[in-house]
Write a structure and sequence with these properties.
The protein is of the alpha/beta class. The chain has helices at about 20-25, 50-60, 75-80, 95-105, 120-130, 145-165; strands at about 10, 30, 65, 85-90, 115, 135. The chain has one domain (about 1-165): Rossmann fold. It has six helices and six strands. Helix 2 (about 50-60) links the parallel strand 2 (about 30) and strand 3. The relative contact order is 0.23. The structure holds magnesium ion. Keywords: Hydrolase. Pfam families: PGP_phosphatase.
Length: about 180
């Protein structure tokens, strides 16, 4: 089970994920988390580096969509529109149907879709259960939903257990 919590790749932030590497690894579609991955929690501002990264993704012929568990349609829509990509809100990650909804939007499948997010228990676990390529990013800031803050503690415990009791390395090497 611990394998499910190990991302394929890890990056300090969304804009530092190498688009060239995604292309090399055959990725054609990206399912991207919103809160603390694209923008700070409850903030609709997309930083200039993130906006520029989306242009590079598009230029590389990679499709992207937002798949967020956030229940506020308007908030998810505003951010997705700023970078010109479709979205799913109230997505119920880590459930499989959340990721399938994303792949339906992208027109991609298990072999060429990557999931990008900041949480092990929603983004990485859900993507790995479907056999997708998964990329863990460091959360943009630590201001977040109380439920998420509690899950961070569980994440820390999980990583500690992986380090001490299993042969599964909790993280893949960081890019940069
Ligand atoms: Mg998030």
């Amino acid at each position: 089970m611990f394998e499910y919590f190990r991302p394929t790749l890890q990056a300090p932030s969304l804009d530092l994920i190498s688009v060239e590497q995604l292309v090399r690894d055959g990725i054609r579609g990206l399912i991207i988390d919103l809160d603390n991955t694209m923008t700070p929690w409850n903030d609709v501002n997309v930083g200039p580096k993130v906006a520029e990264w989306f242009i590079r993704v598009k230029d590389a012929g990679i499709q992207a969509c937002v798949v967020s568990n956030n229940k506020k349609r308007q908030r998810v829509a505003v951010v997705a529109e700023r970078v010109g990509i479709p979205f799913v809100f109230r997505a119920t990650k880590p459930r499989r149907k959340a990721f399938k909804a994303g792949m339906d939007l992208l027109g991609t499948g298990q072999k060429d879709t990557a999931v990008i997010g900041d949480q092990l228990f929603t983004d990485i676990l859900g993507g790995n259960r479907l056999g997708l390529y998964t990329i863990l990013v460091t959360p943009i800031n630590d201001h977040e939903f109380i439920g998420t803050r509690l899950m961070r503690r569980v994440e820390k415990l999980l990583v500690w257990m992986m380090k001490h009791f299993t042969s599964v390395k909790p993280f893949s090497p960081k890019i940069q």
